[in-house]
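During the second half of the funding period, the structural biology subgroup turned its attention to how the target accommodates small molecules. The most pressing case was phosphoric acid mono(formamide)ester, which had performed well in the primary screen but for which no bound structure existed. We therefore specified the complex as follows and requested a full 3D prediction, including the ligand pose.
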Amino acid sequence: MRHLLSAKDLSRETAIEIMDTAEGMSEVAGRSVPRLPALRGKTVVSLFYEDSTRTRTSFELAAKMLSADVLTFSAKGSSVSKGESLKDTAQTLAAMGADAVVVRHAASGAPKLLADSGWIDAGVVNAGDGTHEHPTQALLDAFSIRRRIRSGDSTGTALDGVKVLIVGDILHSRVARSNIWLLNTLGAQVSLAAPATLLPRGIEHWPVKIHFDLDRALEEKPDAVMMLRIQSERMHAAYFPNPREYSRFWGLNDERLHGLSDDTLIMHPGPMNRGLEISAAAADSSRSTVREQVANGVSIRMAVLYLMLSGARRESQ
Ligand code: CP
């Protein structure tokens, strides 16, 4: 794997290989000294042009657990805030000997531009680009579902026949896009529930079933319900009347929580708007995988960096 730019590009075989590698990495994370020497001498750069809590820290932790050196650049606090271009920043990172660049950018396509540009000879990992994709989030979500649903050893398995319902702001969600592609590749049945205003154009051509009523969608007894954050920072128009109405029609509130089967997984990529798309009781319930998703994110990102940089699997996707 030379770069990881998109979940859409991942083959089923590669996605399973990443999840299987993450299983081994999760065992390392549980050790008293959680370190592997696998990437000693490698340099991983985290280049974040947008805010992040989970993705950034988990990539940095993953790289350190593999004994890589980690350089951290954020738009705030680096020369990016003085107007330095992506090209000049990339060339600066190349001069420092970066082996991998983990990039988050507000512009869809920025990680691909970096990978294709020739400005830097490093592996590029997309850590979220605009409304386009967030492939490691989809991998950690699939991994979290697989671990909960497949009892015992899930190594080598996909998600054939698993029903996943994704709810809310699909329009602005790179998490939804990456999940839709990856879950389909892994054999899951994906449904969406959202107001028409929060669905992208052309959605009818995507491999999903669409519901315009959340309660009807929940009657289909999904194995996992993935709630999406309302992305107010990307909204430049009124997409729903007010937060209270949104919560009533599209939120996983306490009433809907009580109607779910005992084994339905409740997922959220974070950060959560508690009381808007998800109630506190739903977020903190025993069915919620929110904290597991964060922990699994470290294992998945260790697996991605390992497969990209260790020489274990160097061919292009
Ligand atoms: N899920 C996710 O991408 O969270 P952060 O924005 O905190 O990285």
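Two results from this model are relevant to the next phase. Residues 52-56, 128, 134, 137, 269-271 surround phosphoric acid mono(formamide)ester (CB under 6 Å). The chain has two domains: 7-134+294-316, 136-288.
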